[in-house]
Amino acid sequence: MQRGEVDMCIVGTDRTLSNGDVCNKIGTYLKALAAHDNNVPFYVALPSSTIDWDIKDAKDIPIEERNSEELSHVEGIDENNKIKKVLIYPKNSKAMNLAFDITPAKYVTGLITERGITEASFDGLKKLFK
After folding, report:
1. Which residues have a catalytic role annotated?
2. Are 79 and 108 members of one domain?
3. 51-108 residue pLDDT tens
4. Which end of the chain, C or N, has fewer beta carbons within 10 A?
């Protein structure tokens, strides 16, 4: 392997739908896209307790939205050595600070569970857990 090459990418998950779609912290989807684009296998490790057998469409997953101030402001030390919070973009700008993103199953090479590794699909999960 050359410097900078990656054998595989493995992430965790907060929720996995029975169809293999993965809901995890923001950035997981981008990692999956980068892995796909570079022919790097992308695996998701999960306990069976995070499999959601009821929600069938990722659009129905409730996504936590955090305070947009986490994005619009940074803290630093001012000229008086005091911590100061500073707005980093125009006041009229809007921001949405989502806590999770959805990675479609088509970008997941496999799901790693306590019962084995399977494809990211309903049939794969059903073989292991039902």
Report:
1. 14
2. no
3. 999 999 999 988 888 998 888 999 999 999 999 999 998 989 988 888 999 999 999 9
4. N
